[in-house]
Amino acid sequence: MLKSTGLILAAAAFGLMLLPEALAAEDNLIREIHVSVPRVPFAWPETTSGITITKVQVTDLLRAVDREAALKDPLLDDGGDLSVESYQFTKLDDGAPFLVAVTDSSPARRYDEISLLRCVGVECELSTLKSEAPIDLNRQIVTADQGGKKEILIKRCVCLNGEIAPGILGFLYGVEDGKVRDVSASHREYFQSSVLPDVAAKMAKIRTSALEPERDQKLNEYIYAQREMERRVLGDHLAGLTEAQQWETSPDEDVQALAVATFEKLDSPSADTALERIAKRGSLRIRERAQQALSKRRTEKPDLAR
Q1: CA 127 – CA 32 distance, rounded (Å)
Q2: pLDDT digits (tens, 9 = 90+) for 1-49
Q3: Residue ranges of the domains in the chain?
Q4: Cβ 89 vs Cβ 98: under 8 Å
Q5: What is the DSSP string of 71-98?
Q6: C-alpha distances in angstroms, 157 versus 84, 129, 212, 225, 230?
Q7: What φ, ψ does residue 117 adopt, rounded to 5°?
Q8: Angle, alpha carbons 170-174-180 (nearest 5°)
Q9: How far apart are the C-alpha atoms of 189 and 145, rounded to whole Å?
Q10: Using 50, 70 and 90 to split pLDDT, how confident is the model at 304?
């Protein structure tokens, strides 16, 4: 885990502003580590059956990996406070099984990380994914296609103001060439049959149970999530444009922030026009977000720059 306090102070020293996580880059894969550890406290299994290891052994190994990584990079936590909530071994590719564990190194103990570890001898590779709590490995290790290969379903919140909120945005991570990667775009049918219908069902429940203005705000966040997945997974590059144009004129800053986040990701020059317009009016908070979104777009998508 990154030492977030140090990073925030460093950012402040350089005059940088850290946006709420879900409205900044999709930093779901928060670390990748390859280190040698002094020892692995159990024989690494070749299959996922008949495994008898303890939570203490799993915790000790993950802490050892973090400790060795911190010796190389002082910005990384040394793993001394790492705790494991649950774990299992899972085959994610043709190689040896991965140890998949729900972990947390923070005092809050929200258990909002999924650690994927595989060791060959004492050489260990660890990838950590962020996913909103609660995490249920039995539900979030999924078979997304008929080929039988397993992937990890993570869920991220919209989190307009950095608050703790339920996971709405779905991402699928799998192992390709030995590396943990976002494979969402390769599983359109899974999103269409499982992830998006689940979002729609929750929206229907909100419409009948929540009170205004809470209801409208929650619905807007779910619509934002729907459109984001339609762009990222289904390939509809303009999904969300109509909603963003409506959100832009809302008197609610949180709704305007959804407009900025959507325009930032739209593959259209009209999004730059909208962001330039927003950056010249409205509250300081929204102007700053629009300016940052423009800067990011012009760095990552220079062909769309005006």
Answers
A1: 4
A2: 545 433 333 333 333 333 333 333 357 999 999 999 999 999 999 999 8
A3: 4-186, 192-304
A4: yes
A5: HH-TTB--STT-EEEEEEEE--SSSSPE
A6: 22, 14, 20, 9, 16
A7: -125, 140
A8: 105
A9: 8
A10: low
